[in-house]
Amino acid sequence: MSRETPKIPNATISRLVTYLRILESLEERGVNRTSSEQLAEEAQVTAFQVRKDLAYFGSYGTRGVGYTVQVLKRELRQILGLNRKWGLCIVGMGRLGQALADYPGFGETFELRAFFDVDPEKVGQRIRGIEVQHLNDLARTVAERHIEVGLVTVPAEAAQTVADQLVEAGVRGILNFAPVVLEVPKEVAVEYVDFLAGLSRLSFFILNPKWREEMMG
Amino acid sequence: MSRETPKIPNATISRLVTYLRILESLEERGVNRTSSEQLAEEAQVTAFQVRKDLAYFGSYGTRGVGYTVQVLKRELRQILGLNRKWGLCIVGMGRLGQALADYPGFGETFELRAFFDVDPEKVGQRIRGIEVQHLNDLARTVAERHIEVGLVTVPAEAAQTVADQLVEAGVRGILNFAPVVLEVPKEVAVEYVDFLAGLSRLSFFILNPKWREEMMG
DNA sequence: TTTTGTGAAGCATTTCACAGCT
DNA sequence: AGCTGTGAAATGCTTCACAAAA
C-alpha cells in the first residue's frame, strides 16, 4: 500500500491469492520465515514472478533474509481486502448448504450471518446459532446484517431468481454452486463452483501435447 | 484439432471453459445459434477475443451467420478433453461428500465411480447404487474402475494423507475441498475449492480503485 | 450485408540481470 | 554473502482492420 498503484495485472491478483493460501499453510506448520524461492516453488511460478508481484504493492521482505510469514500474510490480506470480515449468507439449506454451514475454511475473513430457504420444515431451525429465515426476508436481512456475499445452493431452476434477489438486496459477490450460468450486472462478481470450474486446471494438462496423446483415446 | 497447434495462451483455455459453460446454458434455454458478439457479452470479453481464442484450434462458425450452439459446444468439449467420461471418486462421505454425490452438475463428462470413508458406519452403505468402500481399498478400486479424478472432502488433518494415496493410485487431478495446501507432484492438477478460490474474483473488484474507497473502512 | 477468421500492430506481462540493503 | 526490489529487454497476449465466405 501507500504507493502510486500503476496498473496491476489480473494474473497478479490470482497469484496473490495463491501466495496467501501458501502462507497460511506455512503458518499452520509453524514456519515463520520464507523466501521468494520457496513461495515460487509451491505456487509453481518463478521467484522473479513472486518478487515482481509483490513489488507492485510495496516491499515486504528483508534483503539477504527473506519474508516473515506472518508479516507477508498480513500484508497480502490487506492488499486483497481480506483484512476485514465479509458477511456471508447461504441461500438453500439442503445438504450442500448445511455442509457449507459447517465448513471450517471460512477463517478470519468470512462470517456466516444468515441462512435462507423456502421449505417450512427448515425455516425456523437453528444452525450454528442462526435461525433459518424464509427467502422473503432476504432483502431486509441482507441490509441489516451487512451481508456482502451470497452462496447459492438452491436447485438449478431456482438459481436465477435467487441471484436476482441477492443483487437487488445489494450483495457484491455470488458464489454459485448451482450448475447454471447466472445473469447479473457486471459490477457483481460471480464465481462458479461447478465441475467445469474445478477442472479447468486439469484442462491445462490435457492440452499439453505430451499428455494429450496418452489420455485421449 | 487437426492443426499445427501454435502455442495456446493459458488464458485462452480458461476462457474456453467459460464459453462452454455459456453454450450449455444457451442449449438448455433452447437457443441453437449464437455469435462471437453474444458469447463475448456473456463472458465479459471482446468479440475479437472470442474469435481469436477459437481460431487457435480451428474454425467452427459460418461467416455471415455465426455459430451453431451444439456444434461449438461439441468442438469445445473435444478441445478441452471433455468428450469422454472422466471417472471420479469421492473420499470422505460426510455431509459435503454426500451432497456432492447428489450434485446434478456432473453432466455428460463426469461419472462417479467410487466412494471412500474410514467410518465403519458408512463403509458398506450404498449411495446412488455404489457401495462405500474403506479407504484401504482405494488403490485397487482406482485402478479397476479407471478413476482419474479424486474429490477430497475429508477433514483438513487427513487431506494430505488422502492426497498421497490418490497420487500413488494414479489419479490425474484432485479437487480439494479441505482448507489446506496439498503437496503433490507437479504433473497432478490440484484445484482448490475453498473460500479464497471462490472469492479471488471478488478481489478484482476490491482492487479496482473506484470500489476500494467505498468498501474498505 | 453480415459475421467469421487472421496477420500485423500495439500493449501488457514476464523474465532477466544486477543494484541495493541487511 | 545472501536475497530482495526494480528498470529494461524479451516475450506473449490482445486488439484491430480487413479479407474471405455465406
Poorly predicted spans of chain A: 1-5
CATH class of the largest domain in chain A: Alpha Beta
CATH H-level homologous superfamily name of the largest domain in chain A: NAD(P)-binding Rossmann-like Domain
Assign the CATH architecture of the largest domain in chain A: 3-Layer(aba) Sandwich
What is the tally of beta strands of chain A? Answer: 9
Terminal residue distance of chain A = 51 Å
Strand content of chain A: 15-25%
GO molecular function (chains A, B): DNA binding; DNA-binding transcription factor activity
Pfam family, one (chains A, B): Put_DNA-bind_N
Domain CoA-binding (chains A, B): 81-181
Binding site for NAD(+) (chains A, B): 92-97
Key phrases:
homodimer; 217 residues; alpha/beta; Rossmann fold; 2 domains; 17% strand; DNA-binding; repressor (chains A, B); DNA-binding (chains A, B)
Give a nutshell description of this structure:
Chain A is α/β, with parallel strands linked by helices and 217 residues long. Helices cover 44% and strands 17% of the residues of chain A. The longest helix of chain A has 19 residues, at 10-28.
What do you see in this structure?
Chain A has 2 domains: 10-78, Arc Repressor Mutant, subunit A (Orthogonal Bundle), CATH 1.10.10; 86-197, NAD(P)-binding Rossmann-like Domain (Rossmann fold, 3-Layer(aba) Sandwich), CATH 3.40.50. Chain A has a 7-stranded mixed β-sheet with strand order 5-6-4-3-7-8-9, with helices on both faces. In chain A, strand 7 (149-152), helix 7 and strand 8 form a beta-alpha-beta unit. Chain A has helices spanning 10-28, 36-43, 47-55, 69-79, 95-101, 138-144, 156-169, 195-207, 209-215, and strands at 33-34, 67-68, 86-91, 110-117, 126-127, 130-134, 149-152, 173-176, 189-192. The first copy, chain A, is an alpha/beta fold. In chain A, helix 2 (36-43) crosses helix 3. Chain A is built from 9 helices and 9 strands. At the A-B interface, helix 1, helix 5, strand 9, helix 8 and helix 9 of A face helix 1, helix 5, strand 9, helix 8 and helix 9 of B. The first copy, chain A, binds a DNA duplex (22 and 22 nucleotides) through residues 7, 9, 11-12, 35-37, 46-49, 51-52, 54-55, 59-67.
